[in-house]
Amino acid sequence: MHIRFWGTRGSLPVAPHASTITDKVADALLKANGKSFEDKEAAIEFARDELEFAVGQSYGGATSCVEVDAGNGAFVVCDMGSGLREFGLDTLRRLSDGNRPKEWHFFLSHLHWDHIMGFPFFVPAFVDGAKVIIHAGHADAEEALRRQQEEISFPVPFDWLKADIEFRTLETEREYQIGELTVAMIRQEHSHASYGYRFKSADGRVAIYSTDAEYKIDKMEDESAMADFMADADLVIADTMYSLADSVSMKEDWGHSSNIVAVDLCHEARAKRLALFHHEPTYSDADIQRMHSETIRYEELTRNDTELEVLCSYDGLCVEL
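The structure corresponding to this sequence follows.
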């Protein structure tokens, strides 16, 4: 199973200012300290391997979109954030080998704009013969997607899309079979509700997608239920938008979690890897890198016996399970 991250920011897409790029270039030049490179490939290798991530690369700015690829069957993707456009184009390129059906399965966490805004730019939806199945815990998912393509908001009406589009409302405490994947869903605390997903491959690999979820001190049973849902997962993709202090103080009831809660949940669930996700849009690359480092340190301090590997998701990351 391959997990590909096409969008990892929360709330709204972000793009770097010109001054941000200037700072990165200046930091890279200082680190190079006059070093010369034979060609561009050598310079790329230096930027990738010798510079810290926040200087040589970027976490990206597209909103939530994560692919779960279990082989040569239909494409499976979580959420329709702004990263969906690039995902859609990439899947069309992959279809050129003729080994996959023109079929896409979406699993929506919820219907807030940052999680559906990419769909009007999803090119396969404009392709004759394509089939798009949209799975959600919300019965009003079709209403939400149609509404964002009304004339007042977008020039292309939903009914102009050429793909065969189907909506399926899922239930918790059930399992669904999508090709080689077994899928289950759990309700999460968030405005208008949010849902997390558990994907299990035919060979037993498990990936959890859990974003836009808040855990409250007076509702600890929700945290226990989520730990059970995550049990023995190979990868947990978790909402870590805030620090713990923010999530329980000035940003309480905003519907998001923290890096600390994510580590605690993964430890309780005996998960193998955690991917920090749904990054705060005001955070710079340096801020996100700092949170990643702090999370690794917290995991080390609270570890019982088995190490939890802590990754930090970025646009373009691919994790093999």
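Residues 247-251 have pLDDT under 50 and may be disordered.
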